[in-house]
Amino acid sequence: MKRKKRIAAPRQTVNQPQAVVWKPRFVVAAAQMQTSADLARNRRVILKQMEEAAQKHRAKLVVFPETALSGYGPTHWEGGLRALDFRALARSMQDVLDAARQLKIAVVLGTTIKEGPRYFNSALTISPNGKVVGRYDKLQLTGAANRTGDAAHFTPGGAARLKPVMVAGVKLGALICLDMRYPEIWRLLALQGARVFVHPTAAFGREGLYKIPAIRANISSRASENGCWLVHANSAGPYQFSHSCIIDPDGLAIAAAQPDCEHVIAAAIDPAWKGRNNFIAARRTDVYELKVR
């Protein structure tokens, strides 16, 4: 009896999950808090969340929202930043420096800086030994076209502070809130060696809820197009239109906060890992260049 020829079943392809190619070696945290003109409350929450990040999550770095220490000018200081008690603010700042040293944690803290008659919306990078080792002043102010929003209160930053800072063995690139809409400044930090973007933000208010999809796409793109990690810390509402999150170099959120509440999120990352693509290396430098003026 003639045997029937066996016909092999068609091979089915299944998308298998890719093996992990990075090792969790550095814990980062985003502290989501509701900022206000109450400097004493801001200080209490910041110190409490620093302790939580360091002791509960074992974080080496914690990032706070835009102007977390001072309150946000356009919302909390509509009468002008002259009403802000800078002596009290300096005392609060010293408490944060002392806590960073005691907890041995690096901190990126949003606050208002006064220089003569000028005010800056700044992100200060604090080392684990309690020293300010970096300062970035917000480059892209809201309301710049008609002197409203940020532009009614702050002086825009300049090129001199657009550079990464080494802290806790990792090169950080700091940008603030609206800067997310301008990809070239993120690329400049990446080209200077930044491995982790830190992004203090004050994105809240009912009128901004329509921005949720765009902002989500913006920060994911800033991470993936540069092969960098990103720690995005937003104010806790009311009506957040961006949730605090930690994003990997593929543009994927590996930790995310609940909206309109105060809490700390954390994740272990590998700053050396640049993602599964290398868009920054493949850019057409024969066609264009990008540099700080």
SSE blueprint:
Blueprint lengths: L25 E7 L6 H18 L4 E3 L9 H4 L9 H18 L2 E10 L2 E9 L5 E6 L27 E3 L2 E5 L8 H9 L4 E6 L10 H15 L2 E6 L10 E3 L5 E4 L6 E7 L24
Parallel strand pairs: 1-2, 2-3, 7-8, 8-9
Antiparallel strand pairs: 1-12, 3-4, 4-5, 6-7, 9-10, 10-11
What does this structure look like?
The chain has helices spanning 39-56, 73-76, 86-103, 183-191, 212-226, and strands at 26-32, 61-63, 106-115, 118-126, 132-137, 165-167, 170-174, 196-201, 229-234, 245-247, 253-256, 263-269. It is of the alpha/beta class and 293 residues long. The protein has a single domain, classed as Carbon-nitrogen hydrolase (Nitrilase/N-carbamoyl-D-aminoacid amidohydrolase), CATH 3.60.110. The strands form two sheets. It has a six-stranded mixed sheet. It has a six-stranded mixed sheet with strand order 6-7-8-9-10-11, covered by helices on one side. The protein is globular. The mean pLDDT is 93.
